[in-house]
Amino acid sequence: MRGMRVTGHRTVSLARWLGLDRNPLRRRSDRAEAWIRIALVLAFLIGAPLAFWGAEHWAGSVAPTAVHAQQAGEHRVPATLLQGVPSGSDSFAVVSLGWVKARWAVPGGSVRTGYVEAPAGSRAGSVVRVWLDRSGTPTEPPWPPDQIRSWTLMIAVLAPVLLALLLLAVMGILGHVFHRRRLASWQRAWSAIGPQWTRRPR
Fold it and tell me: Model-level pTM?
């Protein structure tokens, strides 16, 4: 019996917190706001897993992998460095790449000259491999698998967070609208009843 009383008390408290109790002072707008709040919570509980899965699938499909690079017509070719890359004198330096002038052959026969990334300490005349786009210009290399997984997970986690922020914004806007309506309703009620309470006897 005690357990049933505790459960019943919790149910009543939950109904009061949600605004769905039998309080005669509650208006229809209060109950409508409560049902909208519940609907938004259910929308998040249902939409969050779908948003996570959809964002993860989308992020994995657009990640710049080697397969995407080949489909986009990008090629990896050798480039001969025309300058050397200075090596950092500081043993704690974190910069391991540098931009230097190089020459490479575009698929089709023409030779291009421009700046490419090369490891620090590379000498002039050494060869590095660079990725070229359709026009023969150096482009970003495909991402390694670890970076793709991290980026995909980040996008997948952000999707439910953005959904929650959107639903919270909707809840806040609707709460403001209902609050203004309640204030207007109370003001009309007081305009009708207030003069009767404040009327002085003659």
Answer: 0.59
